[in-house]
Amino acid sequence: MSSVIPFSPLRVTKDDRIHRPLECAHHHIRLDPRGGLVNCRECGATLTPFWALSMLADQYAIALAQIQRLNERLALADSRILELSTELDATQGIERTGKESPPRP
User: Fold this and answer.
1) Tens of pLDDT along 1-18?
2) Coiled-coil regions in this chain (predicted)?
């Protein structure tokens, strides 16, 4: 039994933080289609394909939410432009009727 190496007890913890300060967020990835590898372009770390897919799905959801917010702002701007245009047309109509010359006999 001389080939058995004793190990001291290991403490295993799980870190659920999404982003650690001063660490790379791995938002710029490089895919190797031949080897099925995913690497970070910034720090060179090898990433699991599942992690990369999850990160891309999160970024996609954020982008869709932003597009939705921009579409809502655009719809509000369009309705406000229509309101202002209607008010301007009404104001110009009143000015035109006041400036019209009387008909000639």
Assistant:
1) 567 666 666 666 666 656
2) 53-87
The domain spans of the chain are: 29-97
Give 76: exposed, middle or buried? Use CB within 10 Å, 0-12, 13-18, 19+: exposed
* Inter-CA distances, 105 with 22, 26, 93, Å: 87, 83, 25
Each residue's pLDDT tens digit, 21-60: 678 888 889 988 888 889 999 998 999 888 889 889 999 9
**What's the CA gap between 100 and 6, in Å, rounded?**
105
pLDDT, one tens digit per residue, over 58-81 is 999 999 999 999 999 999 999 999
Burial string for 2-33 (b: 16+ CB within 10 Å, else e) reads: eeeeeeeeeeeeeeeeeeeeeeeebeebeeee
CA distances from 87 to 78, 82, 100 (A): 14, 9, 20
Taking alpha carbons only, the member of 58, 53, 20, 16 closest to residue 38 is: 53
